[in-house]
Amino acid sequence: MRIGFDALVGLIAQAFQRHGCSAEVARIIARNMVTAEQDGAKSHGVFRIPAYLSSLDAGWVDGTAEPLVEDVAPGMLRGDGRNGFALPVLEQARPALMARARSNGIALLTVRNAHHFSAVWPDIESFAREGFIAMAMVNSMASVVPHGGHRKLYGTNPLGFAAPRGGGDPLVFDQASSALSNGDVQIAAREGQKLLPGSGVDRDGKPTTDPKAVLDGGALLSFGGYKGSSIGMMMEIMAAGLAGGRFSYEVDFSGHPGAATPNTAQTYIVIDPGRGAVTDFTLRMEALIAEIHDAGQERLPGDRRYANRREAMASGIPLTEDEYAMVRRYAED
Ligand code: NDP
Ligand code: PYC
Question: Which of 41, 146, 170, 213 qualifies as a cystine partner to 36, CB 3.0-4.6 A?
Fold first, then answer.
């Protein structure tokens, strides 16, 4: 079946309000989740509803938290999620962040004490639509073994990057620093698929391609060996370290059965490319992209999502009958 964006947001927001979120927070999370679903980012779409709601039910995350955003330096804002979700903090800080980037050339927002449980491209794509370069750095809960190590320490810690183009959709990539995200491991387990070799280890530290073994006491590996491991480390430093939040290994769900969302940290950097050395940054972007295509790379990061979005905007967001039934159940129960 297919469903319209606003109708799906309405149902999901209803579910979140039923589970203790304020109307504003419910709307922000629901819009974010439907944005992911619309783009075919299934690992962070409606699939996430039960885990979000069980975190709320466990009293682990405060769905009514009022974010605090402090002005600490001309190019720096400091956010505190007050144990709520991260997205309301970014939403509150967004106008000031853009104003600072315009006046200073660059602005940075740190967010501590906040739960980020989604993809990061929705956080930054809109900055690029306003003409900015933007980056998102997020740390998560321990599920990745540092390179050569023997226990999980880093989160799957995504890095997002967005830059404006000379027309059309911005160039955006958003990638976990692990071989794959926890969300995709869960989907692979549900669908009986194997993981690629080199993705994870089982509870004894032995390489495995079985997603259930990774989830059942095992761990993920970084993408690209020691290089990806260093990116994962950098996300810990740039998110938790800089913001004063929890490192991924400091997230302790044990007192809150059902808790799933990581209470960690995020850092966003927004840059005005007009302050760089070129007169028209987007012309340089187009020159680079033309060369990338000429060199043989057809698909750019974001192309798949944008194609899904166009189709969903024309014909509705595709959901399986099971997904739709799940959404309705949570909205109406
Ligand atoms: P993928 O490996 O699926 O994709 C990573 C990036 O590469 C995307 O921008 C994707 O574009 C692009 N891409 C994929 N295949 C190609 C290709 N063949 N050619 C060119 N570009 C390509 O994502 P991950 O599994 O690493 O991460 C999935 C999501 O999980 C991310 O959105 C991330 O933010 C989220 N996540 C969130 C966490 C959190 O703590 N909040 C933790 C970990 C992950 P496209 O999207 O268009 O396919
Ligand atoms: O898919 O790895 C993941 C993830 C962690 C937090 C949110 N998504």
Answer: 41
**Full pLDDT tens readout for the chain, 333 residues:** 999 999 999 999 999 999 999 999 999 999 999 999 999 999 999 999 999 999 999 999 999 999 999 999 999 999 999 999 999 999 999 999 999 999 999 999 999 999 999 999 999 999 999 999 999 999 999 999 999 999 999 999 999 999 999 999 999 999 999 999 999 999 999 999 999 999 999 999 999 999 999 999 999 999 999 999 999 999 999 999 999 999 999 999 999 999 999 999 999 999 999 998 878 999 999 999 999 999 999 999 999 999 999 999 999 999 999 999 999 999 997
Q: Is 156 in the pocket of ligand 2 (CB under 6 A)?
A: yes
Secondary element (H or E) of residue 250: none
- 4 and 39 share one domain: yes
114 and 243 fall within a common domain: yes
Same domain, 85 and 174: yes
Task: Give the CATH number, domain containing residue 167.
Answer: 3.30.1370.60
Predicted TM-score of the model (pTM): 0.97
Please pick, among 19, 39, 43, 115, the residue that the annotation labels catalytic: 43
Q: Which of 39, 62, 184, 272 is catalytic?
A: 184
Per the annotation, the verdict on 248 as an active-site residue is: no
Distance CA 122, CA 171 (A): 13
Closest atom of ligand 2 to CA, residue 117: 7
Check if 306 has its Cβ closer than 6 Å to any atom of ligand 1.
no
Catalytic hit among 19, 44, 115, 116: 44
Best residue among 181, 195, 253 to mutate for probing ligand 2's pocket (most ligand atoms within 8 Å of CB) is 181
310 in contact with ligand 1, CB cutoff 6 A: no
- Are 246 and 40 contacting, i.e. CB atoms less than 8 angstroms apart? no
Query: Pairing relation of β-strands 76-85 and 106-115?
Result: parallel
Instruction: Give Cβ neighbours of residue 78 (< 8 Å, ≥ 6 apart).
Output: 69, 70, 72, 109, 110, 243
CATH number at residue 35: 1.10.1530.10
| 150 annotated active-site | no
Same domain for 42 and 3: yes
